[in-house]
Amino acid sequence: MNKRLRFFLLISVFSWYLPAFSQNIDGHWFGTGKVQSSGNHDEYLTELVLRQNGKNISGELNYYFKDGYFITPISGSYNAENRQLLLKDFELIHPAATTARNGFTTTMNGEFLIRVSRTESVLSGVFKSDAAHRYTTPLINFALTRTYDTLPARVETTADLIIDSLNLKPGIAAVSAPVYVAIKKDSTRSKSIARELTVNSSLIKLEFYDSGEIDYDSISVFMNNKMILPKSMLNYDALKLTIHLDESREYTDISMFANNTGLVPPNSAVLILYDGNKRYEIEMNSDFEKSATIRLRKNKTSN
């Protein structure tokens, strides 16, 4: 077989596989949704779980907003030719809600495009309201990255989270759950203060490590209820952050939000905190009920 013929055969085989690859949108997609409204800086920390059957899409929208974590089923369609994902009407806590616990919902739909590169796959798009609430509900822009750090031994689906939150036995009542099911019954996670520190520096360095053996714990980090680190897996290599304290505040809370509980609950980490030349080592344990939190107070007498 001559080189030219082999080349054309390889191109043909590649072209045959490429459409099949582009049609695959199954998986877990993580990222944040930013509210497009002047003066509103709220974000939706989001996991989109997608299951594809031909052009039909089903799955769950799991998101953390303000003081609550919610799960709602979704459905829609995917057009592989133009790589467009459409999500049908679903309920979402309204961006203007002051708290998720007492908030009101609005009907939204989603429009996304998938972009695939050698290093990552990204869903970029928007949630927008139905026609009846178009002028009272702002757009929410998303960039979601496909992630492969979900535990193969225990994939956390809607049913898993319902079972964890309501202490149900597997298979009981999960399929008949309402649209919204909070991981905690009252839709909130409390803060568990692991340590209170008075620090001298306004510039604080944080390093999060898995505590003990790697068991696939994944965390997000919040400062005063605002996300500063999206979902990341704990490892022997540190998750590093540098924060600037707002000296006008009485205190600053740094919370470790458990996205899962790994192979061995709870979600455990060691936090190394650097305050100038001072070093603190703090054990952090979070679960679906509470988020381990350190509370920092700035020493007013220091420079």
Observed structural traits:
303 residues; eight-stranded antiparallel beta barrel; 50% strand; Lipocalin; five-stranded mixed beta sheet; mainly beta
Q: What can you see in these coordinates?
A:
By secondary structure, the protein is mainly β. It folds into two domains: 25-166, Lipocalin, CATH 2.40.128; 190-298, Immunoglobulin-like, CATH 2.60.40. The protein is built from two helices and 17 strands. The protein has helices spanning 3-22, 158-166, and strands at 27-35, 43-53, 56-65, 68-79, 84-93, 105-116, 121-129, 140-147, 190-199, 203-210, 218-223, 226-233, 239-244, 252-258, 267-275, 278-286, 290-298. The strands form three sheets. An eight-stranded antiparallel beta barrel has the order 1-2-3-4-5-6-7-8. A five-stranded mixed beta sheet has the order 9-17-14-11-12, with no helix packed on it. Mean pLDDT is 78; it is low at 7-22 and 149-187.
